[in-house]
Fold this sequence. Notes:
Layout: E1 4-5, E2 8-10, E3 41-46, E4 50-52, E5 56-65, E6 70-73, E7 78-81, E8 88-91, E9 96-100, E10 107-110, E11 126-129, E12 162-165, E13 167-169, E14 174-177, E15 180-182, E16 185-188, E17 197-198, E18 201-202, E19 205-207, E20 214-215, E21 225-229, H1 238-245, H2 252-258, E22 263-267, H3 277-282
Parallel strand pairs: 3-5, 4-6, 5-7, 5-8, 6-9, 7-10, 8-11, 9-12, 10-13, 11-16, 19-21, 21-22
Antiparallel strand pairs: 1-20, 2-19, 14-15, 17-18
Amino acid sequence: MKKILFGTLVMTVLFSVTSCVKVNFNEGDGVQPPPDPTSNVITGKITTSRFYAKGTYILKGYVYVTEGATLTFEAGCVIKSDITEKGALIIERGAKLIADGTAANPIVFTSGKDAGQRAPGDWGGIILLGKAPTNRPLDPAPVIEGGVGRQYGGTDPLDESGIIRFVRIEWAGIAAEPGSEINGLTCGGVPEADRLFDGELPAVRCLDRAEDRRDRGEGVLGDLRLRVRDAAQREVDRQREHRERADARDPAEELGRLGRIARQHVLADDVEQGRDRDDARRGS
């Protein structure tokens, strides 16, 4: 099927960690509730908008952000997967993810294990679903892979699913069942308005993944700039396969219209396999 960003998505680097959370941000009265230092676990369904201030949080199990809700992470947030109940973040159609980091304070989604014990497949990844046209029929709308049971695609090329910028997604990728996996970043029906890049800078860099680096969700409108670092030098040529194939369900001209990739960089391995380079930088 589709392919986009599976494994460890990397951005540059140094950040500090605190621990406070603000929930139900800007629900109409303009007042933010006080931080709750005990609420560092993100789990279940998110049905109203939430804002998480810079800090460290635990993603437990499959977390669904439902239509009408916006999940916002402040620059510098670190989101670690629960170890026993592997996490995955699913942004449903009509919901938004605002993960707008900076070069100095990227947002990091990573394994919950200690440095030196982390490995690809420690958690699921992020699934971003939109209402933009794809190369799949809409009656019924297709269901994204990964065992999450959520539909994607629609008829609105201006639909917005949020911002992913200066973000790392590390040690991700699990198979829900044979041939149906959650990748580091899976996009289905993601529209052109979504900001997955910032000018000439790639929004995401990939490092160490258990399955496919990226999953394009059967057609992504707009330009996607990304950087791939394959620490094990595995399946580097699959980027060409996914670009050319994109499931090949429609004529070539339709694929060209729906699946543009503006720029892809594949970097040779300069990281020792199995070592979390950025942990060393952070001193963790």
